[in-house]
Give the backbone structure.
Amino acid sequence: MDVLSDVIASMRIGVPRSARVAWPAPWGQRFPSAPGSAGFQVIMQGSCWAIPPEGEPIPVGTGDVLFFPHGHGYTLADSPATPITESDCDPYADAELFASATMEGSGPTTVTLCGGYRLDPTRAHPLLRDLPEMIHLPARLGHNTDLRAAVELLGKEMDSPRPGADLVVSALLDTLLLYILRAWFDFSTEHCAAGWAGALADPAISAALDGIHRHPADPWTVESLGRRAGLSRAAFSRRFTQLVGQPPLTYLIWWRLGTAARMLRDKDAALNEIATAVGYSSEYAFSNAFKRQYGMAPGKYRRVGCPPGTQDR
């Protein structure tokens, strides 16, 4: 897979959930924090205000997309002056993949499409950590047409489910997540080519990341990654570190061990097979490296999982 697809696949767990809600004015809802998740809101009809914990309220209108990558709480309301109530909305508490609801009220109606993705905190990637608390993607004519198309298809499928709807909605929710991130990285690159947005947009650094992700077992060195990037060793190391936030070999080791952790949790492969798959010449060398990163031996990790806080060692 390409780097962005690989990163999302490594973090996502379970099945995403969604709901279409009609909100007649007046209304104001505080959506609580949901650690280990990311969520979105799409304004399908009408308008409202996004009220962050700090800062001024933000007007949002039909076609706008809000994305909350860190699972922190947020508030939506028909007006900043409307009293706010706590929401009992939890897409994971509903066994169904998607649901619809209409709230009480008699004023102008705003329709939102909300959803949530479960993320594995033991596979947190710096790409996601670079994102702001809230991403606002305004609807602009001629912009983000693929994102708009995915939203329209998702809305139609939820309005009139047909045979196979569960599979279609699940696939569209995953597609929507990728399109949201694409749109944000495109916007970020236009305004400031730094961080992971710059890394993915930089042909040289993107080529090196692609090599690491596609072939983690290869005997990569800074020099060989630089050759893949078409840069000298020094120039490559400097640019990679500036954009990715880690030196090339530090990121390589981190990705190898993260891949190994995923294999330990999801597959029954023997330790020596996993060691070879992620570039270690022996099970002993792999076990030592894994223990330094995760604070426990691979066999124990497979049995009990990763304790909170150890994934960033």
Remarks:
- The chain has a mean pLDDT of 87.
- The chain has twelve helices and eleven strands.
- The first strand starts at residue 12 and ends at 24.
